[in-house]
């Protein structure tokens, strides 16, 4: 059974079940109406933000900066109208970590860096979240994750949890170490283009189905029992081969005419050092896979931009290219379409109608996304 079909069915089930959940079924609830002077929490308490509050400021209950506020006693958070969670808002570094186990944030769109790091969260129902900052949920107890609108997953965002099933149907980029050291067996990433270094290291992934991936960086799937890899209709790896005819445990190398994709550690025929069965145990790192892609790079400069910017790219073949400029919700604001010859090109990115904020430039050819780049506009 192909993992794509199985994961799709499970993802639909997750969507239905998560939509019916309200995580923060809290007792001893305290309503917060003033975030400029937040109340001190002296005993285990679930906090509820007044409906007038839409933004949680940075470090509101950050233990290192405001230990007197008692953030370690927060057990749950309810915020029906919250859109943005600031940096380190509920991060707890102290002995044993924080106590937040439940969240109800149905309308949140952006969660910034380290917002909930070192807590006890087991489930997430975030149907509208688009961006999740680095280390935002590091060291929690999350077991299943379905985020239907997330487009990018930042560095170590969900590192060191207990996730077994992961569904990100609209994610484009998975950053460094985003899901390192979990227990993932089911993976649904139908639109991911880039997977950064160590993103899924130390998991239990046996099959990879990544139909739109262009780049997988070194150690992205280190220490996974990979047995089947499929990378799109035009770039499929059907056979796994052994490194130098020697295989150790569940680690494999995959080789095609286009590229080598190395998914772990291998025993190489060297006669010195730390030996195993006559061979040396040695790690091998690869920078990524080089698919027969149409484009070799995509950059936007300056970034952030204060006026018009330049999109730079290189084509390996002549073709029609479309650049879609999208907001953080994935809505296409406008598009640029032209025919380009093989070689280096620059295209002007007009930002006069864009407000200050974060955006995504998607590069498409032959009805398929081949590259993407985030950029910011500051006015």
Write a structural description.
The chain is mainly beta and 379 residues long. It folds into 3 domains: 1-19 and 130-292, no CATH class; 22-122, no CATH class; 295-377, Immunoglobulin-like (Sandwich), CATH 2.60.40. Helices cover 4% and strands 33% of the residues. It contains 1 helix and 30 strands. It has one helix at 3-19; strands at 29-32, 45-49, 55-56, 74-78, 84-85, 102-104, 110-111, 131-132, 144-146, 152-153, 165-167, 173-174, 186-188, 194-195, 207-209, 215-216, 228-230, 236-237, 253-255, 260-262, 265-268, 275-276, 279-283, 295-301, 309-315, 319-326, 332-340, 343-349, 357-365, 368-377. An 8-stranded parallel sheet has the order 3-5-7-8-10-12-14-16, with no helix packed on it. A 4-stranded parallel sheet has the order 1-2-4-6, with no helix packed on it. Strand 19 (253-255) and strand 20 form a beta hairpin. It is globular and about 65 Å long. The model is unreliable at 1-25 and 233-292 (pLDDT under 50).
